[in-house]
């Protein structure tokens, strides 16, 4: 039920973003046709990306909500990374086209008109995008949705671009220097390309299963805080993100005299604790290892019937230690 609520909330938010994007796109192109400003065209062209990206984001959230099947045993959550990749790629392409048009405008400057009207339109659209962007980012963090976060950051980039655009248009209006229109347009396009690159980089990281150190560090904080004496060590930990879900597999070392029922109980406790305390829905695959005599010097298990030496040290579970494929022998 919780997952269905989250996905429904994501679709509702993306739909709001899509409808708003269409309205703002029409407003920006109206400003361009009124002014004939390449600088305003920069913002208008990026708004097309907003609409296309939001459309694909809506589809990707629908697809990620589909249940697992034989072809997708981990679900369809990774489609969100394709959504982010598309958004970033379109931003880079739009920025490149605007750079080319800006260079042409510098070589063949054209007069602009009604700049104050165009400036007011752009200022209003930028303010709306900024408010919507902050809303999407906050909701994306709450719902653990990379798609909402990416869309929100894109809209914040659009707000920054619009702010620079308003300042630039006012400078052009008061100075009358026409070539500034194309020059500022080119600079804004370079910023747009950089923001698109960052989105592409993030999507590729997700598709390549790059470790999300922030998420893993948060989980380790929970494990260290709630650690039980029976949990001797954790190692060979790996994490993958699939949409809003996290998948973790690791090895958990337990006393070798525990029977199968006790082992299952301890493994289940780790699973429940992470899902309750870490703030992200997590599927865990935990392989249980029996302890060895070499574990005794850092084992906290009281009244152990097989202890070969007294405990000498405490070992904190850190990224460096838990990601290695070996017990914490020192």
TrEMBL record:
Xref: Pfam families: Cation_efflux (PF01545), ZT_dimer (PF16916)
Subcellular location: Membrane
Signal peptide: none
Membrane listed as a keyword: yes
Residue ranges crossing the lipid bilayer per the database entry: 12-35, 47-67, 79-104, 116-137, 158-177, 183-200
Membrane protein topology class: Multi-pass membrane protein
Gene3D superfamilies (UniProt xref): Cation efflux protein transmembrane domain, Cation efflux protein, cytoplasmic domain
Keyword line: Membrane, Transmembrane, Transmembrane helix, Transport
Cation efflux protein transmembrane domain segment(s): 14-208
Recorded family membership: Belongs to the cation diffusion facilitator (CDF) transporter (TC 2.A.4) family.
Name by which UniProt lists this protein: Cation diffusion facilitator family transporter
Annotated organism of origin: Mucilaginibacter defluvii
